[in-house]
Amino acid sequence: MSKTVPKPDHPFSPLLFIQPAVIQILQIIGLALIAVSIVYLLAANWWMLPKFVQLFMPQVLLLGSALLSIRFAARERLRQSLDTVSGLMLGLSLAVIGQIYQTGADSYQLFLLWALLLLPWLYRPNIGVFALFCVVSQLALYFYFKQSFWLVRAETAYLLSLNLLTGLSLIYALRYYPVLRYLLIAVVVLISVFSMFRFIDSNSIWYLASVLVLALLFSAYFYTRQQQLETSLLVAGLALSFSILIFDLTDQYLQNSAAGLLVLALLIFGWFAAISALLIKLLPQSRFSVIPLALGAWIAGVILAMLLLTYWESLSILMGLIFIGIAWWLIHSKPSVFLRQLAYCLWVCGQAAVLIHTELLTDSLLLIWLIQIGITLLSIMNRMHWLVLLLQLLLAHALGIAVLIEQHPFSHDHRLITWIMLLNYSVLTVALLTARHWLASAYAKSVNLWMISILAATAIFQCLLQFGVAQQLHPRGIDEAIVFYILPAVWLLSFIGIHLKQFSLTPLWLIPAVGILLIALGYFEIFIILVLMAWAMVNQQRLMQALLVLLLIFWLWLLYYNLGLSFLFKSVSIFASGLLVLLLAYVLSSPKFQSKTGVAS
Questions:
Q1: Total number of domains in the chain
Q2: pLDDT tens profile 362-416
Q3: Where is the DUF2157 domain (predicted)?
Q4: pTM of the predicted structure, to 2 decimals
Q5: Which residues are CB-neighbours of 527 under 8 A, at least 6 positions away?
Q6: 149 and 110, same domain (yes or no)
């Protein structure tokens, strides 16, 4: 009789790791680790290598990655990753040639030649190479103007060239790599904001043109194509630029007073509300027309919070509670989009006033934390936007850590890090056990990003420990066992326990085996990142994928950098890790195992 294959009964099931998309990511990670091990070994012994070896090594890697990209042309992601490595090796080859032969070339010449050599690699669609080209070409332009002193003598010429290059890059991206349009829209907004600051300083019409031209042209383009989100983002960016001008124009008329801040908050909110009203007329069926209004609400909320915190002192607590009450009523009365954004604005500034002035009066972080827990629960009950809830969760978590620091100061209690890690792993473990419930709610993105933030903060703290900045906090004895072994083991056992039926497939035990290995190394968080990444890949959560990839790179760097081994053995350990990941991917993708699980290749 054939064994019945268990179906995934939990969102973070180990069966995610046998999906083709996840296996492909494992293959990319394995190849990347092998490549890094070679590069690391060469970098560690670079000055001891003969010059001809230094010269040819990047070119050999370039040729190897190019040939492998041809070999794996059918695997799109792998092929694009290899092409991106080829693009990086082009730049490294140029840098080595300049170093060995002492060419004396300016930096902009290196980046310009690198950008030109990247162009032929775009004969096949490759988002990584194009993104690299965008960065390198921008650097070439900047260094040209800086090293030729034109950046000082003719800054407007640089801004004109910057606008032209960014515009051409966005046009090309819209045709071939539309997923990059949001990144380039952000660049357009940054150019507009920077140009507005320069316009305020010099009153030059050229700076005003730099504020307007790209934002207006692409807003009109997206509007004609009925791309509503892109139109709203660009218009919101343009409104943000002109809000800076409003600040400047009103500064001389509004004195530094409570009334002045109140009028400024109303002006800013009214300005963004007018922009949103215009967008609603132009895009009547769009839910993105309120983006400028939301941006204005947050800016006005910050100004009102400054008003409450600066001038009204103890009365701010009462005013903050009144603001929160008004916001509660507005949200529950099923208001228009305008009033809902106003409610968010009032809620944020009222919350800031209540928390800060209560702490000043009572000097009790524990009370502030309890108040924040209550506000977070109110936010959930009010079904606020996921970003608002994320901020509430992060603030509650940060205040919880602050309470632990207050109760267990650095100089008197060496178990502080144990309590903090206990808090972090409690959140991560409860999130794992209750994932089926919160992933089905409107706040799935909030909780996911909360977990990613915890893992990122843990990585930063590990980095501080590693470089001796917070060496006095390093756990010792039983605390070290709790932090690095017991808490991760509880999470791993919970992972195995809720998926016990699925481990009837013997090869799946390789997945917790990886977790056990990482516990032994003291970097179990990498396993949690891999589980979250598998879920994000299968469910096509692009934002989470990008954040988790960056976080994984950081954690892997921490792991290998902190190994107490020589350069040679570190390189060997990285190489062996790559082989093990490839072996795991091979076992999980084997036809026999795939046929057992019924996964289509």
A1: 3
A2: 888 889 999 999 999 988 887 787 888 898 999 999 999 888 888 876 555 567 7
A3: 23-123
A4: 0.72
A5: 488, 492, 514, 515, 518
A6: yes
